[in-house]
Design a protein that fits this description.
Layout lengths: L1 E6 L3 H10 L6 E4 L16 E2 L10 H20 L8 E5 L2 H17 L5 E4 H7 L9 E5 L3 E2 L2 H14 L3 E3 L4 E7 L2 E6 L4 E9 L5 H6 L9 E11 L10 E3 L10 E4 L5 E4 L3 E2 L10 H10 L12 E12 L5 E4 L6 E5 L5 H16 L25 H10 L6 E3 L4 E2 H8 L8 H8 L12 H12 L25
Parallel strand pairs: 1-2, 1-11, 2-8, 4-13, 11-19
Antiparallel strand pairs: 3-7, 4-6, 5-6, 9-10, 10-11, 12-15, 12-16, 12-17, 14-15, 18-19, 20-21
Helix pairs in contact: 1-5, 1-8, 2-8, 10-11, 10-12
Length: 479
Amino acid sequence: MYDYIIIGAGIIGTTIARELSKYQVNILVLEKENDIANQQTTANSAIIHSGHDPKPGTLKARLCVRGNALYHTLEKELSIPLLKTGAFVVAHNPDEETLLHALEERAKINGVPETMILTGDKARQIEPNLTKHATMVLSLPTTMVTYPWEVAIAALENAIKNGAHFRKNSEVVKIQKNEDKFILTLKSGDTLETKHIISAAGIFSDEVAHMIEEHVSYQIQPRKGEYYVLDRKAVQLFSHVLYPLPTEKGKGVLIVPQVHGNILLGPTSTLVDTKEIASTTQVGMAQIKEDLKRLAETIPYELIIRSFAGVRASSSYDDFFIQESKEVKGFYHVAGIDSPGLTAAPAIAEYLVHEVIQIKNKPKEYFNPIRQKQKAFYSLSVDDRKRLIESDPRYGNIICKCEKITEAEIVSAIQGPTGVDTIKGIKKRARAGGGLCQGGYCESLVLKIIARETGKPLNSINYYAENTPILVQETKVKK
């Protein structure tokens, strides 16, 4: 019997698990996919927003500003990367300047520090590639960028270190309440018992809620966003996150420097019917290029190395929905967590555990907040590299030439606390395949390493989700 089962191992479920692991409770995190952060956490803009956009007085406003501040603590405790970019919101004419001043006032009401209005000329001194048509910008210095799935992985690794449990490939298909306990049935047929359930199921939150509630107070409305990624050769082109003025659809198509030197362009914002991982479209890709004419003078589209799309969990409820069920005591909704969900995640965990659940369990005397992460091999001094190669020759074997990732680092990712046996799982943890060639050189080598380390046949190794094998059949067979 668990005290808490958390459904969903995205950024929300994993940060909640870490917050709960500070207390004397038995926790299990369930994930229906075969890895952490496979859905919304993987396909987003990676921005730690300042809190300038949410409507004052909402949970989104409160938890965004609080979450932004908490990321500085996470950076130290979990060794996650933070790129302290700051941001500019761009106006082009007197009408937009009026809206920009109103947005600054909203930011101040929300408690965003250090905001400032700059003229277009002053902004271009800082960002020379800012469009010449920009007449004014709102500067938001507390805006940052992170590596979203690493935050989720780090949070869960730390929770596991502090006693939490994790099961992947564990889709919940039925929930029953029997007196003072819940019984969860998994797709595999396994059953689990727990005193409390926390649903952090992202775009599937309403479906999970319908398993236990007759009347669900919200409906998830999937919204697709499409993106381009520019190669690191564009790293000097922009130093700030650049926003247009927000609309009812969201924050708009953005320019976002990334922690590893790439530039992210997007997202679009389109309501869709499917909740599964989305594909890009010609219309969406064209819209990005058209919209970015209002932000930048030039963008080197010849440096595009990939495009992708994701679905985010917009909701019919006009805020984050973080509440105990009114129908079933002990079932907690954490739903409708769209933007700024990544930013708010650590604050959402804090708010849920302390203000909604109002946890009464004793804190652990032995809770360790630190997650150690070994520095990337390529970033070390020559002497440190030599020492590592002497201790483990696999450090001398570069597998991913674009990102300079070694065999030893890939093996470490496979054998880590949350273990991984997919091509994209390695990419998320070790960056192998994240460079210019997008795995064109190293993917086959990574495949062989995964097969060797896991003892699985080559043709059973998945690219990402279950049943996505890289190899289907032999193409050259001796007769």
